[in-house]
Design goal:
Chain lengths: 426, 571
């Protein structure tokens, strides 16, 4: 574990020494109008100049980040770079801790199920096995991921969003609802979409403390949100401009700066009279899946968290590749379902193609002018498709695994013995 | 019946004529043409038409509404300024680039395209509404595209503009509106309605020289309209209105050693405009001393202009019997002394490549021997996202590149600074400075910008051409100006020098305009794949495939299933 940590930190330090934040921070895959380092510096500079940062439509950070960097920025590039590296290590730490707790819980649940006879016969090959190195695998997947290394070097503030999410998840597994409320409310105020995570965390709270647990969690979250809102208002000096400057932008998508998501080109090319309709459709689509998925995966809140994080990364209005890293890092939690996955080569191929050809087509479009926007757009679609494939594949594998766990192996349901199971209407 | 009608109309005409003459005592019209040989042999012709109306001024809101007879005063102008509460207005429509370094300063400096600013009366209740009305009126009056101007291209400068005529109330910039259209094409459709405002039109007088074919076959062409409430005496006890219509044109090098007025303009002046009280042609030989004029000038006038004295050869249009001929003894312009360096100059260029991050460099140089206080106004459309934190200002003293210091570190270089950030689709960026520049020094401003991405219908039809960034405006009060063009209409002791930088043409990344439907289809497909599959996952249960049921199905289904089994992985 420690050599992975060392290598990842060294890589980040190397990029820091190359002053990579300068040329990486304008990369649209790594930072969006909401979390770009350039825009953050602009907001702080405007604030220093005695103007309101939200007066400019360049700045869409939350007041908390603005406040933080008002004091951090003057300390110089190196301190700021180290700050982002520390944030990344903290994310990895939280991920490792939550993996440890989740793995323990899983094993405990499996044991209980075995004892109570809730599982089928012959399922030994697909049982969850104790894996002491799982936390370090999860942390390594995060730390050594090129997406997270680049995102960290680009100083994209999306890492604070990720940190608060994983912190919330970890503390929820620990049962510390006060801190979990803090993590969740921070995540919500950073990017709004994590509000969906309140559903799985409420489920976790319900399983640990029944209704009172849920109430406790929600109460803490609401209190933290009010607290954060008050602090934000204190920072902005009582001005509500940031509501429109941050959440208005997230919801109304006025800035068509390209990113790896689905919104920008769609709304850039959209006819005026359908704009509002499609905006509603897209935003509802981003949120609505939380309800059926919660109903479906209500037994396993952590898996629900994975699906929701994937959906946020896929359907949010200004996604970066860093949003995709958290669900990917969580994947090793379900190594026991990997054997059921069917599209792995396709998914990996899509991710590779889009992450290699994406920057190339961007370069051709923006810098040399020899390709037009469609090439880059096609690759963002590929990236989104790969995320959908991954999510569906994992969900399907998870369900098949559950089916086999209940019904036992080998499957005896049909004469051929091929044992296909299909999704069928109930 | 017919006879009475004729009689009444005759009487009406008589009454109108009588009234006209009584109005005429209050009105005055002067016209002049200044011809100047430029150092590189090109010829500048600058026309001034000044219509004044005593005792009736825009400052009095009701003055124009009580007027029934306009005389020689252009009625559309007076209606426009009284309807929209305009106090002072300046407008220019320009094609081509004035070369400061080669030609000295122009009589009226105008940026390429259109420029307009107006002061509104303090009584105006809604300045923005008046401004919108004025823009529509002007675009109709001069066939220009001012009506395309909205809040994203309107500026409220604080320091660069001051009323030039009489004014009432405090000078508050909230009454001022400024706009410029760098990509406005200027041509005959603007010249024709503009020249209709002249009392004699293009029929007689100096206006008869306005032959569009020749005027637009030139290096530089600019028409302007200025309306100011003018003081009639030094104490400004009585205020009138002055409308100045000016036209500047720089002709290409006339071929041969001899050229004449009619060969330049393609027309000749038949006679003086009978409505004008004075009508002169001035000839500024300036640096070309060995020039012969035929016929001999009627008199030589010494004009006091700032600290310098300019000798002008003058022709009175009334007594001009023949075409003015100019012959040069020597056509070798390289021997002509160049202009002295301009006291103040501004240069602007873009940095960066492709459609990534770009930068704008502005260099303001004071080449004078004295320090200058200059106002700098920079305006950028919202989709060039100016990054304030990259803004740097450097002062180069004595034009020595080793002697660069940050403006902020010097005591009194920046006297005033204001930056207003943009609001998407609402407000543009505006940057204003007042600099105090030591002699022979220059200030370079550098700022970076990110290119914005617009919606497909926000791009103009020729999106690949790019977008213009307005010319920056530099304003300073100078007391001596070696290379200013002399003003024939007024004597001045100080001179408000206003110069413009070149507009910048910046390209923006463009989407593919041809495929909105495709984009909608593709994105919707991806959304549908995600939605559909998740819908399936969440609404269906895993159940074993019932093979017996399969066999009951038809032959075709079985064949398809067999085929499927061939291709599906067996595990």
């Amino acid at each position: 574990m420690y050599h992975v940590l060392a290598v990842s930190v060294l890589l980040r330090l190397f990029l820091l020494s190359q002053e990579a934040s300068g040329w990486l921070s304008d990369r649209i895959e790594l930072s969006t109008p909401l979390n770009s380092w350039t825009r953050l510096k602009e907001g702080v500079a405007l604030k220093e100049a005695g103007l309101s940062s939200y007066q400019s439509d360049l700045f869409h950070e939350t007041p908390l980040v603005l406040f933080l960097f008002q004091y951090l920025l003057p300390l110089g590039d190196i301190i700021n770079g180290l700050f982002f590296i520390v944030a990344d290590i903290l994310i990895a730490y939280c991920l490792a801790q939550l993996t440890r707790l989740h793995h323990q819980n899983e094993l405990k649940n499996q044991e209980q199920r075995t004892k109570s006879g809730g599982i089928g016969k012959g399922v030994e090959p697909i049982l969850i096995t104790r894996n002491e190195s799982l936390p370090s695998i999860v942390a390594s997947v995060y730390l050594i991921n090129p997406f997270s290394i680049l995102s960290c070097s680009a100083h994209s503030t999306v890492c604070f969003n990720n940190l608060s999410i994983v912190f919330g998840l970890w503390t929820s597994l620990k049962g510390n609802w006060f801190l979990c409320g803090m993590g969740m409310s921070l995540a919500v105020q950073f990017s709004l979409y994590p509000v969906m995570l309140l559903l799985p965390l409420s489920l976790t709270a319900y399983y640990s403390g029944r209704t009172s647990g849920v109430l406790k969690f929600l109460l803490y979250t609401v209190l933290w949100m009010i607290g954060i809102l008050c602090v934000s208002l204190l920072i902005t000096g009582g001005s509500w401009d940031f509501i429109n400057g941050v959440y208005g932008v997230i919801l109304l998508v006025p800035d068509f700066t390209p990113n790896v998501g689905l919104f920008w080109y769609f709304f850039m090319e959209m006819f005026d009279h359908f704009q509002v309709f499609f905006l509603c459709v897209f935003q509802i689509n981003a949120f609505i899946h939380a309800i059926p998925l919660t109903i479906r995966f209500n037994q396993d809140p952590m898996f629900l968290v994975y699906t929701l994080l994937s959906l946020i990364s896929l359907f949010k209005s200004y996604p970066t590749v860093a949003d995709f890293i958290i669900p990917v890092s969580l994947l090793p939690l379900w190594t026991h379902v990997f054997r059921y996955m069917r599209f792995t080569p396709v998914t990996i191929g899509c991710v590779l193609v889009s992450s290699i050809a994406g920057p190339i087509t961007w370069y051709l479009w923006i810098h040399t002018g020899s390709a037009n926007a469609n090439f880059f757009f096609a690759l963002t679609l590929t990236y989104c498709i790969s995320q959908i494939f991954l999510l569906l594949d994992v969900c399907h594998s998870y369900l098949t695994h559950q089916y086999d766990m209940t019904n036992g192996l080998p499957r005896t349901s049909n004469k051929l013995g091929t044992g296909h199971v299909l999704l069928k209407l109930q | 019946m017919m006879k009475t009608q004729l009689e009444t109309s005759f009487i009406i005409i008589l009454i109108i004529l009588l009234f006209n003459s009584s109005v005429g005592t209050n009105q005055d019209y002067k016209e002049s043409l200044l011809l100047k040989l430029l150092p590189d042999g090109k010829v500048l012709a600058h026309f001034d038409h000044v219509i004044t109306w005593n005792h009736i001024s825009p400052l009095d809101m009701t003055a124009f509404s009580n007027v029934r007879h306009y005389g020689i005063f252009p009625r559309p102008v007076s209606e426009m300024i009284s309807l929209y509460n305009v106090e002072e207005l300046y407008l220019s429509l320009t094609r081509g680039k004035w070369k400061d370094r080669l030609w000295g300063y122009p009589p009226i400096d105008s940026p390429p395209g259109a420029e307009l600013w107006a002061w509104f009366l303090p009584q105006a209740s809604d300045v923005d509404e008046d401004w919108r009305g004025l823009l529509h009126a002007l675009s109709g009056l001069l066939c220009s595209s001012f009506d395309a101007i909205d809040s994203t291209t309107t500026f409220i400068p604080k320091t660069s503009f001051k009323p030039t005529g009489a004014f009432i109330g405090n000078i508050s910039s909230s009454r001022l509106r400024y706009t410029a259209l760098p990509r406005e094409p200027v041509c005959t459709e603007n010249l024709t309605p503009w020249s209709k405002l002249l009392p004699c039109g293009q029929k007689v007088g100096l206006g008869s020289l306005y032959y569009a074919l020749k005027l637009y076959d030139t290096n530089y062409h600019s028409i302007s309209l200025k309306i100011v409430p003018s003081c009639q005496d030094d104490s400004c006890s009585s205020v009138g209105t002055a409308v100045t219509l000016s036209l500047s044109v720089v002709f290409k090098l006339p071929s041969g050693k001899t050229w004449s007025l009619s060969s330049l303009f393609g027309r000749h002046i038949e006679k003086k405009c009978p409505l004008s009280s004075s009508s002169f042609i001035y000839f500024d030989k300036y640096l070309h001393k060995d020039i012969n004029l035929y016929p001999e000038p009627h008199f030589i006038e010494n004009k006091q202009f700032l600290s310098s004295n300019v000798e002008l050869s003058v022709y009175e249009l009334n007594n001009l019997k023949s075409d003015i001929k100019v012959s040069l003894k020597n056509k070798n312009y390289s021997q002509v002394m160049p202009h002295p360096p301009s006291p103040l100059s501004i240069q602007r260029y873009l940095t960066g490549s492709g459609h990534g991050r770009g930068g704008i460099v502005t260099i303001i140089s004071n080449n004078d021997d004295e320090s200058l206080k200059v106002s700098f106004l920079d305006m950028v459309p919202w989709f060039f996202r100016i990054l304030y934190h990259t803004l740097t200002c450097e002062l180069t003293i004595n034009n020595n590149n080793n002697n660069k210091i940050n403006c902020e570190e010097t005591n009194n270089t920046i006297l005033f600074k204001e930056f207003s950030p943009a609001k998407d689709r609402v407000l543009p960026y505006k940057m204003e400075y007042i600099f105090f520049i030591p002699p022979h020094s220059s200030i370079s401003l550098y700022v970076e910008f990110l290119r914005g991405f617009l919606k497909w219908n926000e791009y103009p039809p020729d999106a690949s051409l790019g977008f213009f960034i307005n010319s920056a405006v530099l304003t300073s009060n100078v007391y001596k100006c070696a290379n200013c063009t002399v003003s024939t209409m007024e004597n001045r002791s100080s001179f408000l020098l206003r110069i413009h930088s070149d507009p910048l043409l910046v390209s923006l990344p463009i989407p593919d305009f041809s495929m909105p439907y495709n984009v909608i289809c593709f994105v919707s497909t991806v959304i549908a794949i995600g939605f559909g599959s998740l819908f399936n996952l969440t609404t269906r249960e895993l159940l074993p495939v019932n093979e017996e049921e399969e066999e009951k199905k038809g032959v075709l289904v079985r064949i398809i299933n067999k085929l499927k089994q061939l291709f599906l992985r067996k595990d």
